[in-house]
Design a protein that fits this description.
This protein is about 40% helix and about 20% strand. The chain is α+β, with helices and mostly antiparallel strands. It has four domains: about 110 residues, Alpha-Beta Plaits (2-Layer Sandwich), CATH 3.30.70; about 70 residues, MutS, DNA mismatch repair protein, domain I (3-Layer(aba) Sandwich), CATH 3.40.1170; about 50 residues, 5' to 3' exonuclease, C-terminal subdomain (DNA polymerase, domain 1, Orthogonal Bundle), CATH 1.10.150; about 110 residues, DNA polymerase, Y-family, little finger domain (Dna Ligase, domain 1). A hairpin with a 2-residue loop joins strand 5 and strand 6. The structure holds a DNA duplex (18 and 18 nucleotides).
DNA sequence: TCTGGGGTCCTAGGACCC
DNA sequence: TCTGGGGTCCTAGGACCC
């Protein structure tokens, strides 16, 4: 039996900004793109709990957030503080959290900038009282929470369970600053009354599909056989069959490597101005290549681009080169060759304006020398 | 209200090789 | 002359997550 914890930072970006500047204390804060007086095109990245009282939340269009802020102001409430995303700062904080967790757990998986899994099974040595192990895990998590609060002045929520799925869901049930233990052997019961949307991997589309079958809460999933769920959702249906019963054997993955490096940009105004598009595209390529150099990867083999038109139709094209390369010119030229058809009649016959362009590289190889050694061995 | 930017994983179809 | 099937690589698109 494993004891797995999931730690999820509370409104991470906004909390860090609030903790970093005393003048923001207690105010509604929204981190995201520039609202530009209600004309901005982005979305909210993170809103703190005060801003959530205004109806502002992650992924909300920034223009709507601006409107909500103005409305609150008219009612005599404080205006929302809109702040740009400061990744450097958040990455630093994330690394500090990682360091604190690592002191208490040998096996850990950073799942994102603000989420971490770690294994506390060691607190229940073989042959010892299992309940004691869970108690010890709780004590360790309390310590971790306290250390994070002391050092970073922000809170987090932690879930403890017998696998990653249960731990993650448990952490989400009591935010902010929660600590929830989903007792071993009670996994099925813990989940049964929750809406299916609580299961990671079920988004709007899958939810709708399942609703059509009369499935609303997790318990409802259990009325369907493995075969039924496979027919409905393919391979993911088999996963769902197990997840609905609280079963999840997936291991913690300590050394996950990136599979691609890419960047995209949305224009302030939709455009077909070649010079402007070319300039932005060139900067994207330069920035992606710079990150490639810093990444430690030695080569890439596939170049891809994205074009989003003003009607939100989105096209991607990719080209895998004959040979791996690390050449910047090759990267830029291949990317440009993929982009050009979208600027003229070839792939844009109705001359639709372009909203966004993006570029990425994939098929990254970590270490060419290692690869060569393997070839010699074979 | 009009929809960011960073990613991952899965699927389906076509090309190609044996 | 007609007809396999398996395996792998590649591309495009979709769903999802933070």
């Amino acid at each position: 039996m494993r004891i797995i914890a999931h730690l999820d930072m509370d409104a991470f970006f906004a909390s860090l900004e609030e903790a970093g500047s005393p003048i923001f204390k207690g105010l509604p804060i929204a981190v995201g793109s520039d609202p530009k007086g209600g004309l901005g095109r982005g979305v909210i990245s993170t809103a703190n709990y005060k801003a959530r009282e205004y109806g502002i939340h992650s992924a909300l269009p920034i223009s709507e957030a601006w409107r909500l802020s103005q409305k609150a102001k008219a009612e005599g409430k404080p205006e929302v503080v809109f702040l740009p995303v400061d990744f450097e700062r958040y990455n630093k904080a994330s690394a500090q959290v990682l360091e604190i967790i690592r002191k208490h757990a040998k096996i850990m998986e950073p799942a994102s900038i603000d989420e971490f899994y770690f294994d506390l099974s060691y607190s229940a040595p073989l042959g010892r009282d299992c309940a004691l192990g869970w108690k010890k895990a709780e004590v360790i998590c309390k310590k971790i929470k306290k250390e994070i609060k002391d050092k970073l002045k922000v809170t987090c929520s932690v879930g403890i369970g017998s696998n990653k799925l249960i731990a993650k869901i448990a952490a989400g049930t009591k935010k902010p600053d929660g600590l929830v233990i989903a007792e071993e052997g009670q996994e099925g019961k813990f989940l049964e009354l929750m809406p299916i949307r609580e299961l990671p991997g079920i988004g709007p589309k899958t939810e709708e599909k399942l609703n059509q079958q009369g499935i609303k809460i997790i318990k409802d999933v259990r009325k369907f056989s493995r075969e039924d769920l496979y027919d409905l959702l393919g391979k993911w249906g088999l996963d769902l069959y197990l997840k609905a019963r609280g079963i999840d054997d997936s291991p913690l993955e300590e050394n996950r490597e990136a599979k691609s490096i890419g960047e995209q940009a949305t224009f302030q105004h939709d455009t077909l101005n070649f010079i402007y598009i070319g300039e932005v595209f060139d900067n994207l390529c330069k920035s992606v290549f710079k990150r490639f150099l810093q990444s430690g990867f030695k080569t890439f083999k596939t170049v891809g681009i994205t074009v989003r038109f003003s009607d939100f139709e989105t096209k991607t094209t990719a080209k895998t080169l004959k040979k791996e390369t690390k050449n910047e010119k090759e990267f830029t030229i291949e990317a440009l060759k993929l982009l050009l058809p979208y600027l003229d009649k070839r792939k844009n016959p109705h001359k639709k304006l372009i909203r966004l362009i993006g570029v990425k590289m994939s098929c990254l190889s970590a270490d060419r020398e290692k690869l060569n050694n393997q070839n010699i061995l074979i």
